[in-house]
């Protein structure tokens, strides 16, 4: 999940942007030279996205026996940071060249993508509410209802329905897509700045992140009080970093090249994070009277420790030659297939995970049944991806035949 720092668009090969310079050095063994675009798809791109999806699914069934081995237990960041970084890279790869050629046409494509994501969010939330309502009324899953913010649907259904349509009311475990929709919708603005200067976009993005952290700037909830759980004004920073990396990769340029000092610093920070998380040597949430977004660990505002962790992890993993070999291993092709159809797999995984939460809340799950349920859920997601892949291949063959 945290390893999902690579994404793709279409079927072309795009080398990981933060290792391009390392790949071009003959004395560096981190990665082979990137293949030409006609050679096919870089297996790392979908493989790491598939890894992310598996971990997201496991973490969305809290308390299961596999949750303890997911990446969130070994560092400050978790699946959400990886997802947003990956999404930014994907946007940079998919839209940057088109935006340079025709900004208006590219903007239309981006907004259609945001509309599609919005439709998926509406559909999955409606089904999730139906599942949760069934559990609440027939299986007495009141505790789960409170935990996932279902109470507003029970107390003020019409107001909540309006909030649901406006994305100002979000179920627990269903708040990543609204963030992603907002960031994708803002991508034309990001690209407009980045097309002038990628460093300028990073500077503007850091400024917005700092202002949001200092002054608690966020989007409001409705009808419930409070703000969005994942603050888009904070999280746009990691998206923009990914966007710039994707743009660099599209141009076959290096975003952050190999540097021994940077590698050592990244490894040291990852080790420090692991030491803190595993050892619990001090209270993470009390580092004195300092701004929370600089020293805290509140996931919603993307604080600096979490941001640095996912960036350090992305950098280190991108330099390891073993990662390319693992991603290319045919025996792990199921993960790659999941990654190729990420949106559908994510949507179905979200629904399966919320159904499992209802069942586990209502009935005790022995270890064997819990394991079977997780395996069945992952298998269902694989079958969705396989069917989509077969349909895609059939359509391609039909097009070639004509």
From TrEMBL:
Pfam short name (any one): OpgC_C
InterPro entries reported for this sequence: UCP028704_OpgC (IPR014550)
UniProt keyword NAD, yes or no: no
Keywords assigned by UniProt, alphabetized: Membrane, Plasmid, Transmembrane, Transmembrane helix
Superkingdom: Bacteria
Record-annotated membrane-spanning stretches: 47-66, 78-96, 117-139, 173-193, 200-220, 226-248, 255-277, 307-328, 340-359, 365-384
Protein name as it appears in the record: OpgC protein
Organism: Rhizobium grahamii CCGE 502
